């Protein structure tokens, strides 16, 4: 499905690298099928070429002209200038795949003038280890075959869920931003561990395995999250003491508010950069 296709990344940041690294590691595409371009950071392109053997260029028009699939991987605030710049060299047979938070497909279609095939996705940084939770949704002019191509691309870097576009802001606040919530919590766990006499290395080994264990358990069990944490809590034991503090500080309310705020920001990005 992806043999012979040329994939151009417009943007060479952390998401672009996570995706192209996954595609190459899983041998979904060959390095020579990939072209990476960005705005001005030549050193970044040199590093990517050295690390992954991909083609790089500062000639964005040429990179788009040569592409079958164009992955939009710039910041949302740069999408307008990026698409306006290359719009004249795009063709109807090309497929545009966005990883941008908040930006609706109809906005990208309007910038591309005409009936461009656009598929919007929301991966997360766990793509770097092939474990992204990605959701994808097709725009008005993309077809099912193109959706399958994008499913195959993102399956190389984790799981893929097809959703209606109106759900993508929720996906963004939940799973796009999701890894950061856990890392933030883990930072506090590391501090608590060191404050209580463990070395950084000991803390890191114990926390990492605890997180991996939680993920694997969630994958394998039918039990709810509530059942799972209650299973850990012995009456009047240590967990009950710890969870008691989380309840006192309304940790679950805080988490719900954080996700709601992230979702609101995703919606806002779509509006702010719409004009
Ligand atoms: N980071 C994350 O966890 C996730 C991010 N995303 C989305 O991915 C996108 C990229 O994020 P991230 O990788 O973190 O961002 P970075 O800032 O790391 O990278 C942005 C890249 O875009 C390039 N760029 C800017 N303008 C243009 C242009 N006109 N044409 C081509 N390239 C351009 C920049 O080039 P230069 O450096 O030369 O200026 C840079 O390489 C964002 O839209 C974000 O919403 C989605 C899911 C998760
Ligand atoms: O913070 C952001 O805007 C991006 C989108 C999802 C994760 N990072």
TrEMBL record:
<keyword id="KW-0521">NADP</keyword>
<keyword id="KW-0963">Cytoplasm</keyword>
<protein>
    <recommendedName>
        <fullName>Pyrroline-5-carboxylate reductase</fullName>
        <ecNumber>1.5.1.2</ecNumber>
    </recommendedName>
</protein>
<dbReference type="GO" id="GO:0055129">
    <property type="term" value="P:L-proline biosynthetic process"/>
</dbReference>
<dbReference type="InterPro" id="IPR000304">
    <property type="entry name" value="Pyrroline-COOH_reductase"/>
</dbReference>
<keyword id="KW-0641">Proline biosynthesis</keyword>
<comment type="similarity">
    <text>Belongs to the pyrroline-5-carboxylate reductase family.</text>
</comment>
<dbReference type="GO" id="GO:0005737">
    <property type="term" value="C:cytoplasm"/>
</dbReference>
<feature type="binding site">
    <location>
        <begin position="10"/>
        <end position="15"/>
    </location>
    <ligand>
        <name>NADP(+)</name>
    </ligand>
</feature>
<feature type="domain" description="Pyrroline-5-carboxylate reductase dimerisation">
    <location>
        <begin position="165"/>
        <end position="269"/>
    </location>
</feature>
<keyword id="KW-0560">Oxidoreductase</keyword>
<dbReference type="Pfam" id="PF03807">
    <property type="entry name" value="F420_oxidored"/>
</dbReference>
<dbReference type="InterPro" id="IPR028939">
    <property type="entry name" value="P5C_Rdtase_cat_N"/>
</dbReference>
<comment type="function">
    <text>Catalyzes the reduction of 1-pyrroline-5-carboxylate (PCA) to L-proline.</text>
</comment>
<dbReference type="InterPro" id="IPR029036">
    <property type="entry name" value="P5CR_dimer"/>
</dbReference>
<dbReference type="InterPro" id="IPR008927">
    <property type="entry name" value="6-PGluconate_DH-like_C_sf"/>
</dbReference>
<dbReference type="InterPro" id="IPR036291">
    <property type="entry name" value="NAD(P)-bd_dom_sf"/>
</dbReference>
<feature type="domain" description="Pyrroline-5-carboxylate reductase catalytic N-terminal">
    <location>
        <begin position="6"/>
        <end position="102"/>
    </location>
</feature>
<keyword id="KW-0028">Amino-acid biosynthesis</keyword>
<dbReference type="Pfam" id="PF14748">
    <property type="entry name" value="P5CR_dimer"/>
</dbReference>
<feature type="binding site">
    <location>
        <begin position="73"/>
        <end position="76"/>
    </location>
    <ligand>
        <name>NADP(+)</name>
    </ligand>
</feature>
<dbReference type="GO" id="GO:0004735">
    <property type="term" value="F:pyrroline-5-carboxylate reductase activity"/>
</dbReference>
<comment type="pathway">
    <text>Amino-acid biosynthesis; L-proline biosynthesis; L-proline from L-glutamate 5-semialdehyde: step 1/1.</text>
</comment>
């Amino acid at each position: 499905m992806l043999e012979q296709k040329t994939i151009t990344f417009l943007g060479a940041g952390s998401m672009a690298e996570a995706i192209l690294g996954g595609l190459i590691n899983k041998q979904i595409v060959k390095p020579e099928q990939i072209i990476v371009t960005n705005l001005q950071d030549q050193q970044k392109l040199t590093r990517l070429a050295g690390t992954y053997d991909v083609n790089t260029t500062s000639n964005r028009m040429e990179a788009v002209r040569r592409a079958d699939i164009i992955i939009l991987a710039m910041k949302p605030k740069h999408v307008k200038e990026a698409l306006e710049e290359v719009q004249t060299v795009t063709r109807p047979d090309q497929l545009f795949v966005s990883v941008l938070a908040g930006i609706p497909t109809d906005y990208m279609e309007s910038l591309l003038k005409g009936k461009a095939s656009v598929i919007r996705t929301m991966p997360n940084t766990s793509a770097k280890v092939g474990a992204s939770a990605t959701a994808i949704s097709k725009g008005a002019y993309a077809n099912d075959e193109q959706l399958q191509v994008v499913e195959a691309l993102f399956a190389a870097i984790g799981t893929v869920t097809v959703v209606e576009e109106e759900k993508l802001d929720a996906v963004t606040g939940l799973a796009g931003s999701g890894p950061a919530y856990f890392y933030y919590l883990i930072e506090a766990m590391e501090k608590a561990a060191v404050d209580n006499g463990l070395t950084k290395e000991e803390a890191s080994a114990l926390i990492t395995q605890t997180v991996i264990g939680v993920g694997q358990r969630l994958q394998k069990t039918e039990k709810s999250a509530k059942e799972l944490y209650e299973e850990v809590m012995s009456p009047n034991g240590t967990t009950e003491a710890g969870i008691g503090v989380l309840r006192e500080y309304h940790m679950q309310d805080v988490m719900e508010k954080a996700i709601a705020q992230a979702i609101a920001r995703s919606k806002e990005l779509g509006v702010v950069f719409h004009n």
